[in-house]
From TrEMBL:
The keyword RNA-binding does not apply. Belongs to the DszC flavin monooxygenase family. Its EC number is 1.14.14.21. Keywords: Flavoprotein, FMN, Monooxygenase, Nucleotide-binding, Oxidoreductase. This is Dibenzothiophene monooxygenase. Pathway: Sulfur metabolism; dibenzothiophene degradation.
Length: 417
């Protein structure tokens, strides 16, 4: 059955049903063991392999470069469906999808040509930007310094989402003078160690733990031409999370409907001989489903803004680029709190339609809230609301997202002075 026949609404384009059709049987297979993987902490290596074989890693790559040529709204429509099956896997692909946008937005160069070929060969890229410790915002303790004809990489990264499943890690480091520099590191290179030590209560299988680099040799061709990311990167990475939340909402709605339909026991204060006919229970089911529908619709609407930003940058019109980038950031920020609240609420109230047996770990219903709460903790929603309010009242263009780290008190003092 398609999205439309399940009343989730039409896809983001006339061709979306055709584009999504080859992946839907794979998503169904992925979902079959989602609860077991969550309970037993089984990493989805096999499932990611299925997606790689089907070309999922090449969704945005142009057809002439062995990709599938998805638009951004089409990409996010498919991410919602994957997240309904297992949001851990969506998160594992998040950095890869972002790096693909880096390549697509890069100016013509041998570097771009090389990475279009790597991506066309279905090689997967994981994340290596975040660091723990007391490094200041915008700086890295990881070092990439000249050594002979190449470079040596030393340091440690955390939140290296997807790297356990990847062929490459895209990362940020500092060169010998402390300047930011970007590089691609083969995950199988000597001196690379990737640990599955993420201990969060949600998204436990997205492989968001530690990566260590000890004297890893890096050649010049693996350096990125710039440490900057693609222009709509802030909104893009946040919208992947919103697509994950929308998919979690759909999964929660589906699980709830099935449990209510199968439930035989009723409460003495209930309204029907079967739970499936109790109007108050049906109201809860409808509310959860409505939250999932709204989350998906909002996500796809914001994806249109990202597509406009991408197209503006292809046009070369500086004014159009600036306006499209600003609007993309704002439209995503305007979506964050609404989508987050919808799904956190839906993944909580679903238990109101069921009995105490719904709390059994074997049912896995708690994973919806745990995953949603973990995803929602990235890039706190309170800051998104403030940015939107500042634009609405004062016309302020959102500042860059800026990463995370210890505050630079010297710069703060200068700003106050």
């Amino acid at each position: 059955m398609t999205n439309i026949s399940q009343a989730w609404g039409a896809g983001p384009s006339d061709r979306f049903e055709t584009l999504a059709a080859p992946f839907r049987p794979i998503f169904a297979r992925i979902r079959e063991r989602a609860v077991t993987r969550d309970v037993e902490r089984i990493l989805p290596r096999e499932e990611i392999g299925w997606l790689r074989d089907a070309g999922f890693s090449t969704l945005r790559l142009p057809v002439e470069h062995d990709g599938l040529g998805f638009t951004l709204p089409e990409l996010f429509g498919l991410l919602i469906e994957l997240s309904e099956a297992d949001p851990n896997i969506t998160n594992a692909f998040r950095s890869h999808l972002g790096f693909t946008e880096d390549v697509l937005n890069a100016p013509a160069s041998p570097w771009r040509d090389a990475w279009l070929k790597h991506l066309g060969n279905r090689e997967i890229v994981g994340s290596g930007f975040s660091e723990l410790g007391e490094g200041k915002i915008g700086t890295w303790s990881t070092r990439l310094v000249r050594h002979g004809d190449g470079w040596l990489l030393n340091g440690e990264k955390y939140y290296t989402t997807g790297s356990l499943y990847a062929d490459w890690i895209t990362l940020g480091a500092a060169d010998g003078e402390g300047n930011p520099i970007g590089a691609l590191v083969p995950t199988g290179a000597e001196g690379v160690e990737i640990l599955d030590d993420w201990d969060g209560f949600g998204q436990a299988l997205s492989a968001s733990g530690t990566a260590r680099f000890k004297d890893v040799a890096i050649s010049d061709d693996l350096l990125k031409p710039t440490a900057l990311r693609f222009p709509y990167s802030g909104g893009f990475f946040q919208l992947v999370h919103l697509a994950s939340l929308a998919g979690i909402g759909r999964a929660a709605a589906g699980d709830l409907s099935r449990h209510v339909a199968e439930r035989k026991r009723v409460y003495g204060r209930g309204n029907a001989a079967r739970t499936a006919q109790d109007p108050q229970v049906l109201q809860v089911v409808g509310k959860v489903r409505g939250a999932a529908y709204a989350a998906g619709a909002i996500t796809l609407k914001a994806a249109d803004a990202l597509q406009r930003s991408y197209q503006a940058h292809q046009s070369g019109d500086a004014d159009a680029k600036a306006e499209a980038d600003r609007n993309a950031d704002l439209e995503v920020s305007q979506s964050v709190t609404v989508v987050t609240s919808l799904i956190l609420d839906a993944s909580t109230i679903l238990f109101d339609a069921l009995g105490a047996s719904a709390a059994k770990r074997s049912h896995g219903l708690d994973r919806h809230w745990r995953n949603a709460r973990t995803i929602a903790s990235h890039n706190p929603r309170i800051y998104h609301d403030r940015v939107v309010g500042d634009f609405a009242v004062n016309g302020t263009t959102p500042a860059p997202h800026g990463g995370i780290g210890v505050a630079d008190t010297t710069q703060q003092a200068k700003a106050i002075a």
